[in-house]
Amino acid sequence: MIVIVVFEVGSVICAAAPTSAVFIAGRAIAGFGSAGIFTGSMMIMIPMVPLAKRPVFQGRPTLLRVEKVSRLANLFSFFLV
Q: In which domain, by residue range, is 13 found?
């Protein structure tokens, strides 16, 4: 739960950043929080999913995110042309 707060604090710092140095510091803090969230989710998943099925659960969300980003990029490129 603490890492979620760290991530949110970093995001707030980024949103209120008056200079690029503060923005970069906020991104670094948000990165630490994001790494903690990812590590925590993996630690929760490890005892719940059998070893043989674990790659499916670890790889699928990444592929879905890539697909969503590519669809969004296509949508924006359509409106920009």
A: 1-48
